[in-house]
Design brief:
The structure holds 2 protein chains of 2 kinds. Chain A is α+β, with helices and mostly antiparallel strands. Helix content of chain A is 38%, strand content 24%. Chain A has helices at 5-14, 28-37, 65-75, 132-138, 156-166, 171-187, 224-227, 237-244, 263-275, 292-303, 322-339, 356-365, 376-391; strands spanning 22-25, 42-46, 59-62, 79-80, 90-91, 95-99, 105-114, 119-125, 143-148, 190-200, 206-208, 211-215, 248-251, 256-260, 282-285, 310-317, 347-353, 370-373. In chain A, the strands form 5 sheets. In chain A, strands 7, 8, 9, 10, 11 and 12 form a 6-stranded antiparallel sheet that branches. In chain A, helix 10 (292-303) packs across helix 11 (322-339). The radius of gyration of chain A is 26 Å and the shape is elongated. In chain B, 34% of the residues lie in helices and 21% in strands. Chain B has helices at 19-31, 57-64, 78-87, 102-112, 156-167, 188-197, 214-225, 259-268, 280-290, 294-297; strands at residues 11-14, 35-39, 47-48, 51-54, 68-71, 92-95, 118-120, 126-129, 133-136, 145-152, 172-177, 203-209, 230-235, 272-274. In chain B, strand 3 (47-48) and strand 4 (51-54) form a beta hairpin. In chain B, helix 6 (188-197) runs parallel beside helix 7. The longest helix of chain B is centred in the first third of the chain and has 13 residues, at 19-31. Classes of the chains: A alpha+beta, B alpha/beta. Chains A and B meet through helix 9 of A and helix 4 and helix 5 of B.
Chain lengths: 392, 299
Amino acid sequence: MKIHEYQAKALLEEYGIPVNRGIMAENSDDISHAVKSLKPPFVIKAQIHSGGRGKAGGVKIANTTCEAVQISGDMLGKTLVTKQTGPKGRIVKKLLIAECVDIKKEYYVSMTLDSENSCIALVASGAGGVEIEETAAENPDSIIRRNIDINIGVRDYFLRNIASMLGVDDVAGFIRIGRGMFELFMEKDCSMVEINPLVETPERALIAIDAKVTFDDNALFRHPDIAGLCDINELDPKEAEAGKHSLNYIALNGSVGCMVNGAGLAMATMDIINAYGGKPANFLDVGGNTTGDSVAEAFKILLSNEKVRVIFVNIFGGIVKCDIIAEGIINAIKSLKSDCSMIDIPIVVRLAGNNSEKGNELLNKSGLNIISKTLMADAAKTCVLLSQESLK
Amino acid sequence: MSILVNKNTRLIVQGITGNQGRFHTQKMLEYGTNIVAGVTPGKGGSRVLGIPVFDTVEQAVKATGANTSIIYVPAKYAPDSILEAYDARLDLVVCITEGIPVLDMMLIKNYMKDKKTRLIGPNCPGVITPGECKVGIMPASIHKKGHIGVVSRSGTLTYEAVNQLTQYSLGQSTAVGIGGDPVKGLGFIDVLKMFNEDDETFAIVMIGEIGGKGEEKAALWIKDNLKKPLVAYIAGQTAPPGKRMGHAGAIISGGTGTAESKNKALGESGAYVVKTPDMIGEATYNLLKSRDLLEKCLV
């Protein structure tokens, strides 16, 4: 789960990490309160879950209170298009108005899960303010990487080493920051804690100017405070809706809607569509124990995407039998047809495994616009053909 | 022979009194798996489907001589169940549970290091030696006893592969679902080593997916060590970067973990890599034919 910068910085502060003073603003009252409470010059930052905000005009400096009010007013409600948001961009609903800090030097420090080595990786560099991927590409030698054993944690000597490699003046301050990051990581089940840049001021103080913190979704059950930080405005509405019904949906750009049971098979289905020259409209895993209800919800989500020209249902009946799934599909389509004028999108169904023949028979007899195929390749080919025809 | 589970497996079901636990206990019994005990704290002394239930794994092991356990316990409690099975010194623990926090799995993984117990999963379909023993949730009917070893990170995609093999009359020695989580018990190399040493396994099907470096590491091992033909498929060639594709471990991040890199590594290792999932059965058949192993593998 992702959170906003202003939320991440509040968490850092909770763990004893100095941040520049700032206030979140959602409306003009908030803006005037913020500029009155803080000292100019200000930095005004759009709070959206996306990198590359600066280049898209989502980070601006204001030298005076008046200017800050003007810039903030302009930015709020504007649509920002960054390299990560896609062409539709994201509407700015929240701002972080913060005090500027004099910068002598900028560092990058992050902790992330390293699942290969079953540890937390600390990554640091003297090239702060730049995305670490860029530094890795242009100046890989400047990146320091150390594994943290989660049973041992971060010791002072460990952080002292990093501080000396980076050339940090305030070593004690750096140790406090490193310890705070690690505590936050472990206590809140983070998957990443990143400070970029960590600024060194001319007075030798270390201050976190920007931060990104993400969390392990699987651990949210034990952190209701963190789960509460989730901003539903930042989620894809279809992905959010799918989540409510325990469906795993990810929006893509193609025209073949996919409904599959199991994550691996769902990815494989996207691959085979692609192999035959089509483009999947989504990834959708309805889970290993598919029921009629989840199939109906899945259809609704697929049909709400206007790009979808054909739907590919690829089910391997394991424990759940294919005839039960076929019934679920038929009932779902019938009920959708009656309560919304379901567009006549062709549905290609491929059932394999338990009772697949019985399932196919039911589909063929249903009188609905369903094409049943026994082979995955045939089904994929048919889908691609139908989507191409419909796009013409 | 086969690997990991067989006729001598004496199984404990942790979480036997839950819906999933009870349902799959029934299915495993129908397959002929020797289930000797169930464990649910607070339910000791009762019976489920005729199987005695104990409060702790240690009691169950003492009373029944169990050597393997399967876990159907909700994610919140599953880390405890895994550690309990470890402390009872079982040979093998299979954890079906999906959604265990990564930091919990890291602590477990670090604890496991010098212990004899092996872990499969979490977030996996389990392991089956057709005709002998099923420890998992896979549909039994698609399997056939034979000589192809199957190892996979996925559930339904494994069934898909097994089904294709069976349709080509290629039976399986053992099929192992190692699970879709980023931090897990046995990895590809561990299972490949076992298949490599197993006299009854003549060829291997390996199914990977995007995310992590497990397939790349396996490819290096395959190149230097594997004595048997291997067919590989990597799911997620069309997955967008930065998105978690259902499985917690299936994510391309910072340019690593792509299907392209995995396919390349496996191709260079001498594995036969198929580009689409429907080709797994056919490719295995053809590869065996070209190596003069087909007659030995047909069942």
